[in-house]
Amino acid sequence: MKPKVAFYWCASCGGCEEAVLDLAEGVLNVVAAVDIVFWPVALDFKEKDISAMDDGSIAISFINGAVRTSHQLEMARLLRRKSKLVVAFGACAQLGGIPGLANLTTAAGILAEVYGDAGTPELQFRDDGHALTLPKLFDSVFALDRAIPVDYYVPGCPPSPKIVSDMFQALLDEPLPEPGAVLAPDHAMCDECPRRDTRPQELKLDRFYRVQERMLDMDRCILAQGLPCLGPATRAGCGSRCIAGNMPCTGCFGPTSHMRDYGGKALCSIASVIEGNETAQIDRVFEGIVDPVGTFYRYSLPSSFLERKRLE
Amino acid sequence: MPDDFEPRIVAFFCNWCTYLAADLAGTSRIKYLPNAEVVRVMCSGRVDVQFVLKAFAKGADGVLIGGCHPGDCHYQEGNYKALRRYRLLRRLLRQMGIEDERLRLEWISAAEGDRVRVVIDEMVATLKRLGPLRKAEEERAHLTEVA
Amino acid sequence: METATIPVEKRRITIDPVTRLEGHGKIEIFLNEKGQVDRAYFQVPELRGFEKFAQGRPAESMPQITSRICGVCPTAHHMASTKALDRLYQVEPPPAARKIRELVYSTFMVEDHTLHFYFLGGPDFVVGPQAPAAERNILGVIARVGVETGRKVIAMRRKLRDLVALAAGKAIHPVFGVPGGVSRPLAREDVEQFRLVAAEAVEFAQFTRGLFEKLVLGNGQYVDLIKSGLFTHRTYYMGMVDERNLLNFYDGALRVVAPDGHQWARFDPADYAQYIDEHVEPWSYMKFCFLKGVGWQGFTDGPESGVYCVAPLARLNAAEGMATPLAEEAYLQYCGVLGKPVHHTLANHWARLVELLYAAERMKELAEDPEIADPHVRTLPTAVPREGIGVVEAPRGTLIHHYQTDQRGLIARCNLIVATQNNAARISMGVEKAARGLVDASHVDDGILNMVEMAFRAYDPCLGCATHALPGSMPLLLRVCGPHGNVLHVLRRDANGSIRRE
Amino acid sequence: MSDRNGAVRIGVYTCHCGANIAATVDVKALAEFAALLPNVVLSRDYKYMCSSPGQDLIRQDIRDHQLNRIVVASCSPHLHEHTFRTALKVGGLNPFYFHMVNIREQASWVHENKAQATRKAKDLVCAAVRRVAFHQPLERGRVAIHPDVLVVGGGIAGIHAALTLANAGKHVFLVEREATIGGHMAKFDKTFPTLDCAACILTPKMSAVRSHPNITLWTYSEVTKVDGYVGNYKVTVLRHPRYVDEDLCSGCLECLEACVCKQAKVPDDFNLGLSKRKPIYIPFPQAVPQVPVVDPETCIQFKSGKCKTTCIAACGDRHAINLRAEAKVEQIEVGTAILATGFQTFDARRTPYYGFGKYPNVYTALEVERLVNASGPTAGEVVLRDGRLPRTVGIVHCVGSRDENTHRWCSRVCCMYSLKLAHLIKERTGAEVFNFYIDMRTPGKGFEEFYQKLLNERVHFIRGRVAEVTDWVFDASEEGKLVIRVEDTLAGFVRRIPVDMVVLATGLEPRADAPEVRRLFNISCASEGFFLERHPKLAPVNTFTDGIFLAGCCQAPKDIPDTVAQAGAAAAEALALIDAGYVETEPNTAHVMEEQCCGCKTCISMCPYHAVSFIEDIHKSRVNEVLCKGCGTCVAACPSGAIRQNLFEDDEIFAEIEGVLSNA
């Protein structure tokens, strides 16, 4: 009988489901190979409905999105219990993703910003006797593996079609990959960059540019052109799509297995290839990097060592 | 903040200058505060930004990087690499709500035993003023929402 | 978890989750003692706070950051954001850049409307609202229209998305938008590919239109359903139009027509704040938009209520016609059958196909424009940034990005009004109306659940896709409770579509 | 964790270092604490871990308890890391399964509160225990030692070191900045305390250098660049043109006679300006090499180009004089280098209250050395500038020594050379000689006896720091004299001593260019500016840079016997390396994990030693482990973590960080 699989989303954009649909004709093969018991929306989340299923009766749960509300946490735990394997699918589940930038603020901060003085929604509300509830918004966004144990990771925002099809290959056939593996090459993206040979050996940047500050050559190393391109620090497998779009890598495929804090390591290396031995000169060079956290932790703040901005 | 707050400092000292300065402070029996604990590296250029972040994440209230004076690096220019990383890292930490004073980069030569005392004592005083980096309770509370 | 534990003191039916732009949606239906619907709520229980964490980010990163609001229509956010940057930096993109943007955008519109018709909303008609849930999905559609057509649809989508990727870097979360232009020009061979696929797209749109005529218009039942009062609300409508008041997705003025079809307002999108306001309900994370000039009167329709809607139906109401020949023809046929303005929510599906045709034709026009391959695709901005507003017509309706920055172009304030917010009030009304009309405690079945769903699916609330994507039905649980919350009976529709009473 | 040798079994040893540690750190508590740490199977404390019973303890335990990791909490790794690694090796364990915790220099010696010091020691031990678990077995590399030696500085230290090495059959390059070797010693007349003639003992050694087949002598030359590493230094030497070819010149000195400048007008540096020389000159009669130098500053041919160049004519067909000669750059390879760059004397103008430069009859000791020297400007006559014999002479000690305002250190030789000069002046002039001293320091063989001899010679000794030297006279007895004002701390009142001649016993200080030389050879200076030895007692001639040794006053002020002894020691250290034939290198080098390297080239520009190179055909970086000095900068810079450093692996450092913070 075909393995039962589930797809679920937490705090995410739906791009990951689209990434699966982008297998196009390939989707039909996947559908043929598995028995999909959930797609991102599942049954009413109450304990008793879920406990109706036997623990571990789902072969693989593919969970995308970060954990941001009590409701998503509950669901993630539930699926963990019901599944033999849980796959953190996409940058949000693996690293926290762009919604993870919310770790620079708090739930209160967000509600205040969004609703201002128009009044904020309440977790429990009675409207002429009708009890309505909303799940709790956490102060922090969490990568999936901070909430539940994760067996495999699929990087990318979104994962590239090749990565997705390789993933199905890898997980539907024996032998399974190493537990905890990130299902993508374990070297940095520069290696597959079409412009890799144009990177000079002696790179010493005397300033960083913002994208609106200079025209970019179509065929020269983008870092060498002064834009902080994170290709050297980012796991390969994306097919260097952003480079093809003539824009710098922003790191959605996250770290290789030899980095512990993606942003810290990326910063460390970018800061190593600049001019300047005096503080003033060095600071001038870095002026072009106006938002270090947004630059180096765009997809990975919740999975960084510090996890979030310090609470005031 | 509790009055008995004792800041924790992780100090990355280069083998050839600052670590020797600390040795000299020792042989000279110079007395300084016991809040800094030294991790020896061959050169301040080895200090990976990840190390600093790890230290802060694991409970350090301050991090001190000690290297050779500009031009004096045992490896010629490792200390400049350290300086460059430090300047950018400072700005990142600021965004994360971590004050500049909590990360300090100091050039201390093998001859400057007393400088070790001055720097560490100063830093401890500053950190006592700033208070603990992580206000343990609430910070843990929220980080363990999922735990 | 709260939702699991709160006591129900009235009879309730919970449809949880349904989904929308930012995560999940939830419908709560409360019955009175007689078992009739007392009140229904469409709740949005999640929020990611882009407006907040956008603060401090450099404006130029917003096109890529905000595209993560939605992975189904990232191109819409990317484009609205990029246009906001043009205004922010007061820079005019070179003609080629402007055309490349609209070309990519049109390509995206064709693709997204195709997705919705075949994968999401369409099945309701192609397969039929009463059909077993297990068939009401793309596979059902394929079964109905034939594998060949099925492959054709999938292949079409693939080609379109490959083109977006070719020009914009990635189909999901594009990267090509920069203030004052696009990051890369189109090479001749790129343009050639666009030409070929554009021609196919027009053909495909015509084919789809034919399919709709055959399957839907040919079926009196469906037409009646579309026209049924259950799915009718007389509200205001908003959409983007060009200088001739013809529909445009990429640029133009916003036009609002009253329930009687007359122009109520026509304004520069940058002035949106003078016309649109947001209402907050304490039981939902989603804000409900309404027309300032008219005012918020609660969840009710008619000229006195500021409730309005966007998306295909609204756009066709707000516009006076289509800018391309075949689309214009389709538009006239549509008005011929339904009149104008059209107040039937389910007509959205038909309107979408008219737009599909327009998007394909527009794509063809631009692909054949000789200027499109001009290598000059960027103007470097020089002005000091302060404020910028960018608006496009997303597949699901008007999308507004509004940024204020400091001198260095770091975001200070960010306001985003997404399509589904414009529709939120009308969706809630639709759900409640459908529920009132269909649900009663003694008789609840799968078809009824689906009818209720259709009330919001017609708007294609962004990520509604998920409610319908493979393998098909949105699993639902419907519980009818007696007084003091004792469960009378539970109807469960499982993922495989089978219905079980418990 | 290492799986190289099964489960990790750690032994932790806490050293008391007598009371040095035990007095401030609760060693018992520390040992008990360590015993409970993960993977620790044995924890001991012992009085002196570095002693041989201490080391035996480790060896024994490795066998008895199958320990495969060792942590010793004692002093600085700079002191005993090698000792303990050797102990591991002898115990049959790879020496790098070891980590040392510095709880003496960094805890017991610098903290007072025992509880706090102990708490800190615990954290440090905890860090080491976590770290050592990740250690990997490593092999030391071997680097062949080039047998040639560079000696910098041709004073007595350099000369002695060069001769010792040359006599041992090693080739020596001796580089001297001046036109002659001999250094300060060549300026002296007699040496204390034996009063034997400096020239008599020095000049034979100088000519031995000149004639020695194993010595390449380059005077008038400077080291401008040093590359490489122990055993394989590449040195660049700049040889200034002396305009007289050393090989062609026979040292007849006829050119000096022939010079169109009949009168010597140029102040003679060798005699500190007390005499004059010609534009073409030889520093002093016994100079080595015996080859004149042309001073382009003053030579008419250089200034006007219109000289008859009689010197060239005089040289005749030897053609040794070539006024168009240019500087030469020599490239040499050596395995080791000895720095014997010496000292400079304190500039007496920095103590204006002693009147040097103001009153003609105030001299520095070194000037008087020249005056009393038979081959000096006055042929040994001690006369004032006006030619009079001094009747009374005052010698002021500690000028620029033991002084908060100038130098705090004692220059060690001033007391003795002051006594020597007092003796010589009295001998030559019969003058009354007064010594003004703070403390009389005569710690050395025959020194105290010499002092007694002077006392018997009726030389006056007044204990007290001189306040000033002035010509402001109070009465006729002081008329025409210099008055020395001093508080006689024995008599207990201020005295005014009128004298004809004042001699300032100026101290020794580091050469002005010591910082440049230090950078050139990548060594350190101590706070006062003298070169820093590796260990003040155990490695007094070594530096922290392998293969670079120190001799003489560049390391600290010392007298001739000590200098010569140290020069011999430095030579012996060099010989030890050379005869071993190779040196073992620390294995803390970096290496690229090629399968992880993405070829981004970030590392290439990180390395100042060009140890990292880019292999085009495989598109990866590679580290040359011989060139790599193990700084780890490329490791930190590698964006994807594809470069690792032995002994400083990320795993190890992260474990250490978590360790020190384990009870945070």
Keyword list:
heterotetramer, B: 147 residues, alpha/beta, Rossmann fold, four-stranded parallel β-sheet, 43% helix, C: 502 residues, alpha+beta, 42% helix, globular, disordered N terminus, disordered C terminus
Description:
By secondary structure, chain A is α/β, with parallel strands linked by helices. Chain A folds into three domains: 4-100 and 140-172, 3-Layer(aba) Sandwich (Rossmann fold), CATH 3.40.50.700; 106-133, no CATH class; 189-303, no CATH class. Chain A has twelve helices and nine strands. Mean pLDDT of chain A is 88; it is low at 40-48. Helices cover 43% and strands 16% of the residues of chain B. Chain B is built from five helices and four strands; from the N terminus they run βαβαβαβαα. Chain B has helices spanning 18-27, 49-57, 78-95, 113-130, 136-143, and strands at residues 9-14, 36-41, 62-67, 103-107. Chain C has 17 helices and 17 strands. In chain C, strand 4 (177-178) and strand 5 (181-182) form a beta hairpin. In chain C, helix 15 packs antiparallel against helix 16 (446-457). The radius of gyration of chain C is 22 Å and the shape is globular. With 664 residues, chain D is α/β, with parallel strands linked by helices. Chain D folds into five domains: 10-140, 3-Layer(aba) Sandwich (Rossmann fold); 141-240 and 327-342 and 511-585, FAD/NAD(P)-binding domain (3-Layer(bba) Sandwich); 254-318, no CATH class; 346-509, FAD/NAD(P)-binding domain (3-Layer(bba) Sandwich); 590-645, Alpha-Beta Plaits (2-Layer Sandwich). Chain D is 28% helix and 23% strand. In chain D, a hairpin with a 4-residue loop joins strand 25 (482-488) and strand 26. The model of chain D has no long low-confidence stretch (mean pLDDT 94). Classes of the chains: A alpha/beta (312), B alpha/beta (147), C alpha+beta (502), D alpha/beta (664). The interface between A and B is large, with 41 and 34 residues.
In short:
With 312 residues, chain A is an alpha/beta fold. Helix content of chain A is 29%, strand content 14%. Chain A contains twelve helices and nine strands.
How are the secondary structure elements laid out?
The complex is a heterotetramer of chains A (312), B (147), C (502) and D (664).
Chain A lengths: L3 E6 L5 H7 L3 H9 L1 E4 L8 H5 L6 E7 L2 E3 H13 E7 L1 H5 L11 H9 L8 E4 L2 E4 L3 E6 L1 H4 L4 E3 L6 H12 L68 H4 L17 H9 L8 H8 L5 H5 L16
Parallel strand pairs in A: 1-2, 1-3, 3-5, 5-9
Antiparallel strand pairs in A: 4-8, 6-7
Chain C lengths: L1 H4 L5 E9 L4 E8 L5 E7 L6 H4 L8 H5 L7 H15 L6 H26 L2 H4 L11 H8 L1 H22 L8 E2 L2 E2 L5 H30 L2 H8 L8 E6 L11 E5 L5 E5 L4 H4 E5 L6 E5 L16 E2 L2 H7 L6 H14 L9 H21 L18 E8 L2 E9 L5 E7 L1 H20 L7 H12 L6 H5 L7 E6 L5 E7 L5 E3 L1
Parallel strand pairs in C: 6-11
Antiparallel strand pairs in C: 1-2, 2-3, 4-5, 6-7, 7-8, 9-10, 12-13, 13-14, 15-16, 16-17
Chain D lengths: L9 E6 L3 H4 L4 H9 L4 E7 L5 H13 L4 E6 L2 H14 L7 E5 L1 H5 L5 H19 L8 E4 L4 E4 L3 H12 L4 E4 L14 E2 L4 E2 H14 L3 E4 L2 E9 L2 E8 L14 H5 L7 E2 L8 E2 L2 E2 L11 E2 L5 H4 L6 H6 L12 E7 L1 E4 L3 E3 L16 E3 H8 L19 E8 L14 H16 L2 E6 L9 H10 L3 E4 L2 E5 L11 E7 L4 E7 L1 E6 L1 E3 L3 H8 L26 E3 L9 H21 L1 E4 L4 E3 L19 E4 L4 E4 L9 H5 L5 E3 L4 H11 L4
Parallel strand pairs in D: 1-2, 1-3, 3-4, 6-7, 6-18, 7-10, 18-29, 20-27, 21-22, 21-27, 22-23
Antiparallel strand pairs in D: 5-30, 8-9, 11-12, 12-17, 13-14, 15-16, 19-28, 24-25, 25-26, 31-34, 32-33
